[in-house]
Each structure stands twice: as C-alpha cells, then as structure tokens.
Amino acid sequence: MRREVFAMTDTPVARLLVVDDEESIREVLVDFLTMEGYHVSAVSNGKDAISSLQKNDFDAVLLDLKMPGMDGLELLGHIKRIAPRAFSIMMTGFGTVQTAIDAMKNGAFDYILKPFKVQDVIRLVERGLAQQSLEAENIQLREALKLYTVSEEMTATLMPERIYDLLIDTAREEMGADALALWTNQPDGFRCERRWMRSDLDEVHVNIVNGVDVGALEEALDLDISGIFHNGEARKFIPKAGQNLVSIMGVPLRAKNQTIGVFVGFAFEENRRFTEGRRKMLAVLCGRASAAIENAKLYQNLQTTFKETIQAFANLLEDKDPYTRGHSERVSKYARMIAEGLDLPDSEVELIADTALLHDIGKLGIRYEDLNKAEPLTEGEYEMFKSHTTRGRWILEPIKFLHDLIPGVYTHHERWDGKGYPRGLAGLEIPLHGRILAIADTYDAMTSHRAYRRALPHDVAIREIQAFAGRQFDPSLVEVFVREISQDRSFKKAKAARWDALKNTAKHKRALEAPRDSGTMSALAAPED
Predict the structure, then answer these.
(1) How far apart are the C-alpha atoms of 458 and 463, rounded to whole Å?
(2) Where is this region: Disordered (predicted)?
(3) Looking at 86-100, 283-297, 386-400, which range is the least confident one?
(4) Contact criterion met (CB below 8 Å) for 349 and 431
(5) Which domains does the chain have, with CATH numbers?
(6) CA distances for 26 relative to 17, 99, 111, angstroms
(7) Residue 4 has pLDDT above 70, yes or no
C-alpha cells in the first residue's frame, strides 16, 4: 500500500519517504509531516520502498526496523545504493544498544524508539535536513573552488590535449559517473579524444561507450535543454546497450555558435543516475573548456604563422647567399642540441631554435659580393659585416611577435672576454641565447665550405672551440655542446652500422637464394685458386 501527500506550496520543499508495516504509524507521520510543509510518501514494505526510491528523489527515509519480508537493516543497504544523498531515520519498538549500533553502521542518520512523540520525529528530520543542507553547501563550495582552479589551469595551458585531460579528470572526480568520453567535431565526423571507465567494468560496457551515436546525441542536445536521458530514452542513442544502461548525460562544447565537441557521461547503476545538479556543473566545466580549446587553437594558428614567417625570412636570406644555404637550419639544429642539453623548458628550446634560423637576418642589408670575397675583408667591409647584428635588430623591432628573437640575433657575436660586438658585453652580461648561438654559429661556419676556404673536419673544429672556451665562448656551454654533439654523432654512427649490417645480410641472402644453372658453380661456393 502506498500513500503520497504534497504540501501546498510553490517553493521547493524536502521529500520524505515513510516505510512502516503499521498503517496507523504511516498515517500519523504523513499527516503531521505534511502539516510541517514536507512532501511525504508512504509505503508498507521494503520492496515498495525500493520501487519508490528508484522512481523519485527523496531527501530522507523514515523506516521501521522490523517489517515482514525485508527488515530495516537490509533496506538501509538498498537506500545507500539507490539514493546515497538521502539520510535515514530508523524507527523500532524493539530497541537495544546493539540494534542502534547496527543501524548506525549500516548508514542510518539517527535512531528513535516507538512509541515516539511526533515532535521528536520532526526535530530529527529538521536536524537531518540542516546537516544535509550544510553538506550540500560544502559540496557546492568545493565544486566552485574546483571549477575555479580547473578554469585557471585550462586558461593557462595552450594545448588542447591538456585541456581534454583536465576535463576528463575533473568530471571523473566530481560527476560520479561509471564512464566518460569526449568527442571533438572534425571535418570527417566526431572523433573520440579521451575516454575513461571504471576499472571493474566489462567488455559489454566498453561496447556501450564505443557504440554511442554521437551525431544523433548532438542533434538531440540542440532540442533537449536538459541533456539527461534515462533508460529507454538513453538507449535510443546506443541501440545495443540493452538493460545495462541506466542513463547518459551529454553536454555540447560550443565556440562561436558552433559545436566543437560533445562530452558524455554514462551511468550503469541506479545509484549513479544523473541529476540536473550534476549536469549544470558539467555544463559550466564544458563552457570553460570550450573557451580554453578555442584560445588554444588560436594560439596554435599564431604559432604556425610565427613559424612560417621565420622560415620565409630564412629562405630569403639563404636565397641571397648560396654559399651559406642550409647554414641557418644547421645552426638551429646545433643550438637546439645545446638548449636541450641544458634541460631548458620546451618553450625556450623552441625559441632558441627559431632565433637561430634568423640569427643572420641582418645580412639582408649587406651586398652579396661583400659577404663572400675570397680575399680578406677591408676594414670598411669588416665594419659593414659587423653591422648585421644591429641591422637584424632593426629589421625585427617593428614585428612585435618576433621581439623575443632579438636578444639572440643582436648578441650572437659577443665574446665571453668582452672583445666581441656590437656592445662588447662580457661573461654572463651576454644573454644566454646569444652565448648558445655563438658556439652553434662558429661550429657550422668552420665545418662548412665557404668561398674563401674549405670546410674543416669535425675534430679540428671541436678542438678550436675548446681552445677558445673562456675567451670567445662560455666554457660551461662548450662542455654541453661537445657532450651533446659527440652523443649525436655516436648515435648516428651506430645507426649507420646497423643499417649497413642489415643491407649486407639482405644482399647475402639474395645471393644465396638467386637461381643458377645446374652446371655452373656459385661464386659463393667456388673453391679458391
């Protein structure tokens, strides 16, 4: 038998479920609690209570300990599973210390003996709701703090992949889902970027997550503002889900009025059924992620433009001087080698490598004939050549997004002993980028053919650089360069040796397998004279 009474009010009030096999107690509690302004439902046994809990959201359950079929302690376990947010008050006329302990161990909020005063029950309900409200406020505060922290992290990173990870990790901690997945909208359809599932789920659940029709779900999200689909409604998007799927929650990621992705949560158990509160939090989280992903894409486009601009300048420079063609790329390679050997952040490694590509950009203002004379330069020509560092700064200064390249371009001819140019800086006064480029530039200049001399062997060039450590070059960077280039050359030699061995093995195998005339002895098998 089931009874339900609603208080006459427009404001949201607590929903209570009374479970007792005694009709008189049910009626008394329903009448008095309704007069207190609560929405009250009542059932006579544990089976009906489970059914009500599965169909409705309750804030509290008042249940009898001794009932036919399923007792109160057993029902407590079902309440914890189906309605984990609800608190329970155990009622009994057979109270002992042990039954009270058992009730509290099984998750009861409190315990009251029959016969009871209705006012005592009302006070227990009020106290439980007050604690529940406080816990909800704490959860909301924690969620708000989490959202703020994650939003800051998303805004700080400029990599979409990191934003995907933050979105999945935060939702996993906060949503109480069994599985999560993020799809992004690509020209050829939706692509799954990230997926997470509880470790104890089986292949059936994996197939459910993989089998969702994201396109159909995205269309439904445009029509259904809730984004939460239960039971049969949920299974429309995953035809093979069967009864294993309880609900799904979908939230679109949108930027510039376009859907750039869809985030989906999956619930396979009743106690994980999604609520509107969960959806609202996920919607806020996805909104932050959408903005961060869009910013990351804009940044990547700017980076692409940045790289293309640098390469265009480098191509223009090397087209002017065929003797130094490839010089900028090689200097960039050696500079990257030193930067990585110093364990610099990836962003700084890239900046140094980009600076190396344009370290000689100032030579665009110098006549080609003066750059590659076979004879020694006159004093005037040498001064003109030295001006390429200052000219390089002058060329880059109007281009704001290339400003970070200026220190290296301007100072790559400074010397550790202060006898370099253009400013005569010494030691650590020289920016790190300039000190790195000085070594990389000099090594490539010595090991490359020029109009006025032939290339020097690697070993000779290394000895020259080591000889000028502490005079022309930063001695600590010389050590790093020698170490890194030695490792690089050793790796390449070992790789080349392995490749030669493979080629020789293949050649030998082909020779053995080659067809030959029966009357002609194989060259491999022929005896020596």
Answers:
(1) 9
(2) 510-529
(3) 86-100
(4) no
(5) 2-138 (3.40.50.2300), 157-293 (3.30.450.40), 321-487 (1.10.3210.10)
(6) 10, 22, 17
(7) no
